[in-house]
Amino acid sequence: MMTLFILALLIIIVLFGVKNIRMQFITRPVFSFFKKVLPPLSDTEKEAMEAGDVWWEGELFRGKPNWETLHSYGKPTLTSEEQAFLDNQVVTALTMIDDYDIVQNRKDLPPELWQYFKDEGFFALIIPKQYGGKAFSAYANSTIVSKLASRSVSAAVTVMVPNSLGPGELLTHYGTQEQREHWLPKLASGEAVPCFALTGPEAGSDAGAIPDEGIVCRQEFEGEEVLGLKLNWDKRYITLAPVATVLGLAFQMRDPDGLLGDKEALGITCALIPTDHAGVKIGQRHNPLNMAFMNGTTQGEDVFIPLDWIIGGPQYAGRGWRMLVECLSAGRGISLPALATASGHTATKTTTAYSYVRHQFGLSIGNFEGVQEALARIIANTYQLEAARRLTTTGIDLKVKPSVVTAIAKYHMTEMSRDVLNDAMDIQSGKGIQLGPKNYLGHPYMANPISITVEGANILTRSLMIFGQGATRCHPYVLAEMETAAMDDNEAALERFDSLLLGHIGYAARNAFSSVFCALTASRFNQTPVSGETQQYYKDMSRLSSALAFMTDVSMLIMGGDLKRKEMLSARMGDVLSELYLGSATLKLFEDNGRQHDDLPAVRYVMATRLHKAAKALEATLRNFPNRPVAWVMRALIFPLGNHFNGVTDKMAIDLVQGMLKPGPARDRITFLCPEFEGDTSGIAEVEAAFIAQFNCKQIHKKIKTAQRNGALPKKMSNLPLFQLAHETQVIDAVELESVLAADKLRLAAINVDDFSSL
């Protein structure tokens, strides 16, 4: 037996150790196999891959995350200028917002708010200072949009669009000096209002399929014949289009007459066109779920523009797809996650308050476990949203373009927002469904599907982008192997592939061993950067990271190019990556907050959820893996003792809710994006005031309850007579009576809803 083992070992050493033998019997046949099974990269896919950067998601995807790297990214902070803007201009804007009037009556922002946004630079957050902009960080941009969104989605969207994918960002990164000097000061001052026309009836999430065309031709322009483009387009869903003065346009550029060279199809190109230019048509408004932000259509028929109107000049002809992919991080990583996080902060602030002041069966409804189950999800999702918002904007502020991370943020954060609002509606019930000035949930609830569908529909983001792009970009070998397989020089390709193959085999073996070893040892030997309760979360995430890396290698080997078409399978593996990213963000927020003890209930709940969902996604992939024998082997290596990531317990939910049904720093940390300000008469301020007043009367209510249990006061009596009787029987004194009467008045105001003589 030992002889056979030694012989087998020697054969393996010779096969892999002697290059000529390895090349003949391993590298060459494997290379031939790889050429057949590896998915080919289309030109648009290749551009997308090259445009994005690999950031923290690369660590998670490769099976051995360096947690010190995560901690080294630093804590996102605001400059004194950014903080002053939030304390002054943003607060002033909030006092000017009456969202019920904006949505239900005006169908637009009031003129004075439009002007204030322009005058105070709300449309210039990302524009460099030399052109009159603010040059604020991604974190500041996100915080500003979130605070506005806590009071009005329509106002927030109006501000976020000029600071997201559009002329301002594209000009800043790619514009010629002449273009920047002409347009950026106008955009910064609000003299020019921008929109960007990308989506059309035949091109939504598949932006690469844009049918709109620009044909290179010669035509007279401003009295002389120039080389330019004849454009035809039909776009829809374009935010700010109805009020825009300058239009960013994406189109397919073609040169059928060879006026620029021998290439006819130049590719997607972006140009900047004044909306009063001949032939430009701004169409009618859309009605996006009754929200009041401007959204509509634009068309153009035989619109001639000079080549100099291409963003970046003629040298950027055909480079629009890469430009768009690189700049999508603002919409996916800043703006839409900011809206989602605002929903969480608002729902947590109002629903904890409402659950405390709303009584049924003689108790605050927050004491009922059925309510606590939903309320715990709201609080935990909000903690997660805030964590993901901070980590994602940190990456953007580090000047990386983490396209996979921003896709994760866009999909999961907007879906969490939907869950948060559904749970908040369930708890607040009638308070949430009766629209009026008091209602702070109705408009965000109505608007939520907008975030789900824009900047890449969520279904396609999950099923195609997160894993599809992540597997290729984040893997240390696959992209290089795909490039090698496409090389024209077969011998040079074979030589390069040989070195890649050895590294890839070692990488796969390490992840397979790590996966089974961690499973058998409960991850206790994995490294962790911290001590205390949270250290096990780092260890468990490292285990699941190695399992994902191992499963990815096996899946790509078995299915090759077919994996792209197995969307349900690849989406589940993308879910594992996403859960690991979200868990990383949670642990980093806990560290950034100074490891606050009162954050631990939220961290426990969130991390139990993340680990459970990641393991569940791995299990679902194994259950549906098409090659059953391979699936059995993977299961034995990933879950040799079964899946013991069981998710949250009832105690976790109860502990989390009980800590949040009182004022305190932990509650403040995940509700600060729903701010309070002097003179606020909104429904949010109303329910918060009632909550504080009721909490401050806690001991008085305790006296009354004790007297009821002792028989000194009747057990069933409405509040006002009960309070009066408690005073008369000296259970409470005059000052206490005044306090409970005032608090109860606020409570009744908070639980009441608007009614109207007519609608």
TrEMBL record:
Residue span, Acyl-CoA dehydrogenase/oxidase C-terminal domain: 318-456
Q: Where is the Acyl-CoA dehydrogenase C-terminal bacterial-type domain?
A: 472-756
Question: Which top class of enzyme applies to this chain?
Answer: oxidoreductase
What Gene3D superfamilies does the database record attribute to this sequence? Acyl-CoA dehydrogenase/oxidase, N-terminal domain, Butyryl-CoA Dehydrogenase, subunit A, domain 2, Butyryl-CoA Dehydrogenase, subunit A, domain 3
Q: Which reaction does it catalyse?
A: a medium-chain 2,3-saturated fatty acyl-CoA + oxidized [electron-transfer flavoprotein] + H(+) = a medium-chain (2E)-enoyl-CoA + reduced [electron-transfer flavoprotein]; a long-chain 2,3-saturated fatty acyl-CoA + oxidized [electron-transfer flavoprotein] + H(+) = a long-chain (2E)-enoyl-CoA + reduced [electron-transfer flavoprotein]
Organism superkingdom: Bacteria
What are its E.C. numbers?
1.3.8.7, 1.3.8.8
**Keyword field:** FAD, Flavoprotein, Oxidoreductase
The segment(s) forming the Acyl-CoA dehydrogenase/oxidase N-terminal domain are 98-191
Cofactor(s) this protein requires: FAD
What stretches pass through the bilayer?
none
Pathway where this protein functions: Lipid metabolism; fatty acid beta-oxidation
Domain Acyl-CoA oxidase/dehydrogenase middle, by residue range, is 195-295
What protein family does this chain belong to?
Answer: Belongs to the acyl-CoA dehydrogenase family.
What is the recorded name of this protein?
Answer: Acyl-coenzyme A dehydrogenase
Origin organism is Shewanella psychropiezotolerans
